[in-house]
């Protein structure tokens, strides 16, 4: 089983350009990753704190329909986090957030994960918003120490980070040493200000960089460098594309966790899955049959 930890929220997606009405759609990087894994046929559980309001019920219904295990989900009466994406002409998205007093940021460290868990993925807002951020950090450290494959997607949202220098230090000193695979976008890399060599030296065995229309590149601690081209598609928006990459990476890496990684194949499948997500409004990752 793969466990995905982090926020579940509602994206208020513009119904048209120029924006007018906003359509509520399920979202949040970890939520999208868990949904994508379920659709790919992986055994996956979602680990978060989700509101008991109507949005929270719809979020869990979406995961359940994809076959995601909900036994690790905590519930609370606080409202669901809202995100308002602004879409650029090329379909890329930037975000504003409504996060004060919301349920997902009150996540607490759960008991040890089940023995059958092989991988843990964390990322996005859940790494920033306290007190939940410290609980997710503790979860990452605990499960890494017992040998799980861990994937970290910082998925930087600058509007949520009040102290950038402190966040960068936390990322490098307290998160990366417990990370097996670091996946990030070019925008994340620029904001973090580091180098691939520095990140690999801090702990991960591989760094995967998403480069939009230029595809994906992976670097490994052994010195390997691998790339895959992006699939040409008509882009509706890019919401959820990076999260779909997370899911495709985890799905392939956990099939044969102790064997050599066929990075060209892993990256090509991730590029294909992300491209299909970009052809749909909001975060709608593909099903296994579509790949």
Our estimate of the beta-strand percent is: 15-25%
Q: Please state the CA-atom Rg, rounded to the nearest Å.
A: 17 Å
Label the structural class: alpha/beta
Described by the principal axes of the CA atoms, the overall outline is globular
Q: Care to count the β-strands? A: 14
The main sheet orders its strands as: 4-1-9-10-11-12-13-14
Mean residue pLDDT: 91
In this structure, how is the largest beta sheet organized? 8 strands, mixed
Residues in helix, %: 25-40%
The N- and C-terminal alpha carbons lie at a distance of 21 Å
- What is the N-to-C order of secondary-structure elements (H for helix, E for strand)? EEEHEEHEEEEHEHEHHEEEHH
Number of helices: 8
Unreliable runs: none
Summarize the structure.
The protein is of the alpha/beta class. It has helices at residues 29-39, 54-65, 132-145, 164-175, 186-192, 196-202, 241-253, 263-278; strands at residues 2-5, 9-14, 22-27, 44-47, 49-51, 74-76, 82-87, 93-98, 119-123, 149-153, 181-185, 206-210, 216-220, 225-228.
Structure description:
This protein is α/β, with parallel strands linked by helices. The chain is built from 8 helices and 14 strands. Helix 1 packs across helix 7 and helix 7 packs antiparallel against helix 8. The mean pLDDT is 91.
